[in-house]
Write a structure and sequence with these properties.
This protein is α/β, with parallel strands linked by helices. It is built from 7 helices and 6 strands. It has one domain: P-loop containing nucleotide triphosphate hydrolases (Rossmann fold, 3-Layer(aba) Sandwich), CATH 3.40.50. Strands 1, 2, 3, 4, 5 and 6 form a 6-stranded mixed β-sheet that branches.
Length: 180
């Protein structure tokens, strides 16, 4: 079986990750695709779960990211194009890059919209009463300057979800987002 590939669609909350990832998975060019949503992996934690943006949640987050990487590459080795969406900053790429070294292609895509737009999108969601706007702004700030990964950023300003997914797909096919 020909291995698939792993595509991480990330960015701050409100950047359009989940919608774009769902569209990418639904319109995958191959016969097999999977959409892994990081929030689901956090929901598996039953006791001792911490809000992932808290400093003391680092070990928890590292465990969840390791599980996501393992699941993503297991599906990909089975021939699936895997679109993972969640907050995956450059600081958590090591488990994905290590598995990519085993021969499955790994692509890293950072969706980015303006800070105010991102905050407005998040605050418009159901359950926004429980959202910490300062934490959301802090996450946006962490993706504002990606350094060596800046070429992996895609602006979603003014784009429909379909246009965002199409732009990401074009970049994937051109090899723009691949990490070794």
């Amino acid at each position: 079986m020909v291995p698939g590939r792993v595509i991480a669609v990330t960015g701050s909350p409100g950047s359009g990750k989940s919608t774009a990832a769902r569209l990418l998975a639904d319109n995958s060019p191959g016969e097999r695709s999977a959409h892994l949503h990081s929030d689901d992996f956090y929901d598996y934690l039953r006791k001792g779960r911490l809000a992932p943006w808290l400093t003391e949640a680092h070990a928890q987050n590292a465990t969840v990211i390791e599980a996501l990487a393992a699941a993503s590459f297991t599906y990909a080795r089975g021939g699936y194009e895997v679109i993972f969406d969640g907050i995956l900053g450059p600081w958590f790429l090591a488990p994905f890059r290590a598995r990519a070294a085993e021969g499955v292609a790994f692509h890293y895509v950072v969706l980015r919209t303006g800070r105010e737009e991102a905050l407005a999108r998040v605050m418009a969601r159901d359950g926004a009463d429980n959202i910490d706007a300062a934490a959301i702004a802090g996450l946006w700030d962490q993706f504002a300057d990606l350094g060596e990964f800046e070429k992996h950023a895609v602006s979603t300003d003014g784009l429909t979800p379909e246009a965002t997914a199409a732009l990401v797909r074009q970049g994937l096919e051109a090899g723009r987002f691949r990490l070794e």
